[in-house]
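User: Predict the structure for this protein chain, please.
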Amino acid sequence: MIRIMKLPSLIIVYLVLCLSVSSCMRSNIYEKNIGLPACKWKEKFEPSFVFDITDTISSYTIFLTMRHTDAYPYSNIWLNVKTTKPGEKNYSTAKIEIPLAEADGKWIGYGMNEIWEHKAPLTPGGGPVHFSAKGEYKISLQQIMRTNPLPEVMSVGIRLEKNQ
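Assistant: Here is the predicted structure, written as structure tokens:
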């Protein structure tokens, strides 16, 4: 005969399991994705992402997140990444190429059916970033491919992870 655990004991077991699983998972401090109308990214559409930095001692990795269909016509994407620091109105711009496929045409990201998702470092060289000031940062993305609008792009976003 199976003995049924009392509700308080079951809750404690559940909480211990949740805590043990979550302590092993890497947590990001910011992630946002923006869908693109009709799966077309117009050059003039510059999605913006605003996040707050409170820890200037730690290093961070900034990722581009992108979803596209299998019909995306290129093996890469070129972006102007515009960054505004806390308390400043002017932004700095970096021109970045993100590879999306290997030389043989195989997508680098994760795919399910005809949808592919990429998570690629957004900094030159893919290295970690140290934020010099506490406060609100803004990153805007502009696609600078030769095709406008850029077809088959479903969404773009930013993911910020604190390095351990």
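Residues 30-162 form a domain with the Jelly Rolls fold (CATH 2.60.120).
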